[in-house]
Model the fold of this input.
Amino acid sequence: MHVVLGQKRLRAHAFALMALAGCVTMMGSACAADAYPSHPVKLIVPFPPGGTTDILARMMAEGMAQQLGQPFVVENRAGASGMIGSEYVARATDGGYTIGVATVTTHAINPFVHKLGFDVKKDLVPVSNMAFVPNVLVVNPTLGVTSLAELTALLKKQPGKYAYATSGTGAEGHVGMVGYTKVTGTDALHVPYKGGGPAITDTVAGHTQMMQGNLPSLLPQIEAGKLVALAVTSSKRLAVLPNVPTYAEAGYPELARSAWFGLVAPAGTPPEVVDRLNAAATAVLRLPATRVAIEKLGGQAAPGSAAEFGKTMDEELTAQQAVVTWAKIKPE
Done:
């Protein structure tokens, strides 16, 4: 009897060891996904702290940590219009323990403005959209203008005298300002920064006089009276800025295009891990508290599948290629 029980125990141990070996040798299998995440995950933000990308990333990191039981550590790797941080994510080989934030700038504009060290379609895979966010054109109050028409008149009267800040050459705000100056026949000096945070700081300080950027990062300064909002890129007026007209209302419907922010992973990430990350992100974005928080920033939560986010990214690539070509934007 003791011999039979001993043999059963030996067989049970053998099967357990075989299963463990299978998990070790098949990292893309379900057992690998079941164990994910077993330690902290890095969430790379390709811009400095303080901008919309950073705000949304930290919101998602907190929620996904609660969903998956491991810390999601936000790491800012700024520079080169988001290319440094994005390439860092593309080159990661840790099976989903390094993921990143994708934006219109990093994944739809940069490929047509800069020479990248990676391929946005081949080296990265979509995980989940996070939010759609409108952009807003703002000016420093000392400029003395309160409408888009007044700004246009001032820039025409004194071409090249005033400067606008952006989060980098080829960034979404840069493309937007180039579009505005082209359709209005005006001229202003471009001053690129390493991210939205520094660009906002200098515009508030008056070192630059205007900028176009994502509403969440600019709204606090608008509400505090430190910046004046002249136009929003949304299709209709925003509840948080009811007195600010849309570009379409101002006569420039071609400038109405909002931003999106999502999560991406290196192309080698196991599909099961991508699914697990998407499920966690979706759960966070469907929480009423998350939805309300994003709405207070002027945005809209955008839960959905990885495939749906991939379609959004592909459509934006096509659209931005046309815009960049039309605006003749080149690296500076």
